[in-house]
Structure formats: structure tokens, C-alpha cells
Design a protein that fits this description.
Radius of gyration of chain B: 19 Å
Number of helices of chain B: 11
Shape of chain B: globular
Distance between the termini of chain A: 45 Å
Largest interface: A-B, 43 and 45 residues
Helix content of chain A: over 70%
Strand order of the largest sheet of chain A: 1-4
Order of helices and strands of chain A: HHHHHHEEEHHHHEHHHH
Structural class of chain A: mainly alpha
Oligomer: heterodimer
Shape of chain A: globular
Order of helices and strands of chain B: HHHHEEHHHHHHH
Largest sheet of chain A: 2 strands, antiparallel
Chain lengths: 291, 289
Amino acid sequence: MIAYLSNLATQVAIFGILAATLNFILGYAGIFSIAHAVFFGLGAYAGAQIALLLVPDVVLACIVAAAIAGGLSLCLALPALRVRGEYFVAASLGLQMVAVTLFSELKPLTGGIGGLVGIPLPTLFGVPVGVLPVALAALALILLATALLARGSFGRTLTAIRDAESAAEALGKNVAAAKTLAVGFACAGAGVAGALYALHTSFVNVESFTMDYSVLMMAMVIIGGTGTLWGPLIGTVLLLSLPAALAFLPFLPATEVGAVQQIIIGLAMTLLMIFRPAGLVGDLSRGQTTA
Amino acid sequence: MLFLQLLINGLQTGAIYALTAAGFALIFGATRIFHFAHGTAFTLAGYAFLFAWRADWPGWAGVLVAVAAATLFGMAMERFVYRPIQRHEGSFFTVFVAAFGVGIVVQNLIGLFAGRGLATVDTPLSFGTEVLPEIFVAPILWIAIGTAAVLFAALTVFLTRSHAGVALRALAQNPDLIRTYGLSANGLSVLAFAIGSALAAPAAIITAMTSGLNEAIGHQVMLISIAATIVGGIGSLRGAALAGLMLGVAESLALQFVDTQWAEAVSFLVLFAFILFRPSGIFGVAAAR
């Protein structure tokens, strides 16, 4: 039971990081990325390779993962600078699809469909540690950074860009730099989550980085409330405890739990958008003005 | 010879892409709603045909059921999802998430009730015969190309000659003026969804007979439709259809150089290049927002 709870807590912390960073570009900057799982995957592969080839040091793995995911975030930043709205969603979907093909085909780096197995247990400066405390610390740091960035001038610039890009530009804001930085920060955070995930499960393969996961992360942010600090975290807890809750329903055959869970998530997304588009935590009046 | 065979296969895929893309482009052009559940209409039509076929219904009845399923789904989406959302706010992302949610629900319901994995309809139409040395052509190729050509001709006549068609084009340009003239913008919206979704049905039936369906095929269809619409230029029906045909041919011809798993990636690389370098597409007039 303790092991189960600790596993669930680690999952919540890792997906909490993903939801918080996705919320940063989605809620504050208005960049609707459906490719967050790509950067999660990049971080996971980077962290796994570091642990397999060098040392399983959790901090080193996180730093390398953040650097790689943050660097490659240019793939997402470039279309974000060129287009908005529907066009960008299409571009990020395209990126997601191409990345899944790359992940399953670049066998020397990713292990292909089989994935990377036997990732050693994490250490910190040579001392063995659990992933949970590190993940919680990383989550706290990311939430703190999000809160500070969102409240400071950077966050205000981003919200200004989200609400009226040309007005922000007219006021002398460097739109390109702000967008690139925001995407870089969010993707680096996803990379950290990926490295932690690889060390936690000691096995990674492409299954965890598909569009389904990008959509799951998006659902966490939206169900919780976009553009709020705690909303994504609440969404994460709700969605991750859903499988456990469904397991208590005796009439449900085990093979169909996944499908039922997906149906609930899908329904929740649609109904929330119709009746409460700002999410569970979000402020309704504000949700209406952010178009 | 391989080139010619791939070109023929590409034309068949391209005809299917062109039909779905034209439906998507028609809906987007007229209503400005980015109909992310368009792939779901395709999936529903395909499975409706599959069930009719397995129940030993005659072919024409299966086609009718498929068209009805797609059309009703499109109209229901307009009435029960998009219209309530647009009443209180028109944010693009809200519309997108709602439509995406519907797509997930339908995909999993089909998985529950129809079973997961590949499902095909075997007919004599999809068996290839050797027409030239090493070139195999199945009758379904002519059906695909013929259906696409006839439907486009009909659509063009409808949009340029009929009263409702002209009103639809007017809706695309100025919804306020439509209301001023006493026409119902809501009614025209439903009409656009009905016609656009119906166009996905023949494509779904042909796909069921050739490469087969699976419950997640809607994602791919939706992505291709979006890619074709953007590459062709938003608002241009002709552009979307042509781009759909091109993407199908390009995916197929790329097989000469790369393995099959990369075929899909080809379409997205084309889309990515267009978004970066020419967001307004081939026939686009308005600049991207």
C-alpha cells in the first residue's frame, strides 16, 4: 500500500511538472501546443542514456534532459513565431506525429519500439536516492518559477501577447524573444519530468510519448483550469487517480478500464468546454475575456 | 515500373484525402469553425458501412447508412457542441478541446463495441488485376477517382448555381450581411456541416474496402484534412482538394525512397514547411493570423 501510494505520488509529481509547464505556454502565452509529450520523451531518452552510459546521477540527468529538450524546443518555437491559433495546433500535431516516428525508428538512440530497458536506480552525488523527493522538489521549483515568472514583467508580457499580439509589439515588447523563451522554459521543464520518469520506471519506450499522452497533459491543464497556478495540479491529481477509482467498480472488466477512462476524460473535456470553459479552478469571468 | 504502381496507389489515396479535405475546408470556409471532429465523422461512416456489410445488407443500403451516420454526426456537432460554445465565447481553443473530447469518446466507444484493431470489408472490387506487366489495378481505383470527380463537379455546381450554395459562400464572407438579408446563418451553418460531413462518407467506405479501418483512424484523417486545407490555402475548396490529392501521391511516391512507416511523416513535413514558409498556402489569399 505504501509502495502503491509512493508510486502514485511520484506519478503526480512528474505529471504535475508536465501540466504546470504546459499551462505556462498554454494559459499564459496562448501557445496551444499538442506536442508536450515529445519534449517529455526527449528528456526521458536523454536521462535514460545518461544513466545507462555515464552515471545514474539524478541531477545530471535532469540538467542534460532540460538542455536537450529546451534546445530542441526551437522546433516548436519556430512555428509559434510564424502562426497562431489553428495553424499552430496543426503544426504541433504534425511535430508530434513526426516525433513518434523518429522515436520508434532511431534505434541506436531510443531503442526503437522495444525502448530502453534496465536503467539503473538513481543516485545523487553517489548516494542512492528515491525519485519521489527529487520529483517533489522539482515540482515545487517549477511551480515557484511559474508563479514568479507569471507575476513579473515576463509573465505580463506573455499575457499581453496572448490577448493582443500586435498591441504588445506596438508597446515595444520583443514578441519573438518572449515566445521563444516561454517555449524553451516549458519544454526544458518537460525534459526534467522525462528524466525523472525514466529513472522512476527504469524503462522507457515510445508508448509513453504518443499523442494520447500529449492529450492527457492537455486535459489535466484544461480540466483544472488554464492560466491558474493550482488548476493544472488539481487536474493532474484528478486524472491520475481516475484509474484507481475505476478499479473499485466491480462490474467493469479489467480490459475495458482504459477505454472507459478515456471516455470519461473526453466527456469531461467536451462538457467543461460547453458549460465552464475556464476549468474547475478558473475564474469564469476571466475565461470569457481571454479569446 | 515501381514508380507507376506507386503513382496509381497514390492517386487512389489522394482521391480519398481530397474528399475528406474538401469536406473539412467547406465547413471551415463557411462557418470559420475548425472542425476537429471531422475525422470522427469519417470513422462513424466507415464503421456504419462495416456493420451494414457484416449484416449482409445490400451495398447501396450500406452506403446510405454511412452517409446518414456522417451527416447526422456533423449536424449534431454543430447544434449541440459548437453553437452553445459560440454563444458564450468564440475562443478557438475552447472549440478545439470540445471537438477533440468528442473524438476521444467516439473512438473508445467504437473500440468497446466494434472491437479494436484493423477491420476491413472484403469485396471483389478491391482485388487487383495485372493490366500492364507488373502493374496491378483494382476496380476500386476507378471507383475512388470517379466518385471524387463526380462529387467535386456536383459540389461546384451546387456552390455556384444553387441558391443555398451561393448563400453558403456569402456566409463565408459576411455572416452579418446574411442575417440582414433575412437568411438564417444557423440554418446555413447546419447545411455546411451536413454537406461537409457527408463528403467524408464515400472516402470512409473506400478506405474500409482497401486499407481497412481502425478505431483511431479519425486522428489521421483529421490531420490529413487539416494539412491539405492549410497547404491548399484556407478558404479555397479547390486548393484543399488539390493539396489532398498531392499529399496522397507524395506519401505514396516517397515509398520509393523510404520505408512505409515514414509515409505519414512525409505529409507532416510538407505541412511543416508550408507553415514556416508559406502559411497562406498555395491558393491562399488572406495572410495567416
